[in-house]
Design goal:
- 0% of the residues lie in helices and 48% in strands.
- With 126 residues, it is mainly beta.
- The strands form 2 sheets. Strands 2, 4, 5, 6, 9, 10 and 11 form a 7-stranded mixed β-sheet that branches. A 4-stranded antiparallel β-sheet has the order 1-3-8-7, with no helix packed on it.
- A hairpin with a 6-residue loop joins strand 4 and strand 5.
Length: 126
């Protein structure tokens, strides 16, 4: 059974840093794209970052460029999101997503072979 589990969320002050992890189990995702999305209260889920299967290409939402870095370790079936210079508007539930295909925008195409984690809360105080 495929399972994605995020960790590393928490409460941080403005300007602080957090590192999220998403560990996958049940199968290898070494040939899949991996990414992060987030959903703030009252808002739609939005794309944050993604990385292709071998880590050679990464994509970011404009709102996080220069502050967030996505990485992956295929040997551990895990992806990461390092977040720096956090702002109150970064407050959201962060979800990892795994899928076969990346769109030109960097978003992971949703299909039957797409998986989501349950999410981890990130709260940035002002």
């Amino acid at each position: 059974q495929v399972q994605l589990v995020e960790s590393g969320g928490g409460f941080v002050q403005t300007g602080g840093s957090l590192k999220l992890s998403c560990a996958a189990s049940g199968r290898s995702f070494s040939t899949y794209a991996m990414g992060w999305y987030r959903q703030a209260p009252g808002k739609e889920r939005e794309f944050v970052a993604s990385i292709n299967w071998n880590g050679a290409a990464s994509y970011y939402a404009d709102s996080v460029k220069g502050r967030f870095t996505i990485a992956r370790d295929n040997a551990k079936n895990t992806e990461y999101l390092e977040m720096h210079s956090l702002k109150p508007e970064d407050t959201a539930v962060y979800y990892c997503k795994v899928g076969r295909f990346l769109r030109p925008s960097g978003e992971i195409s949703s299909s039957m072979d797409t998986y989501w984690g349950p999410g981890t809360q990130v709260t940035v105080s002002s």
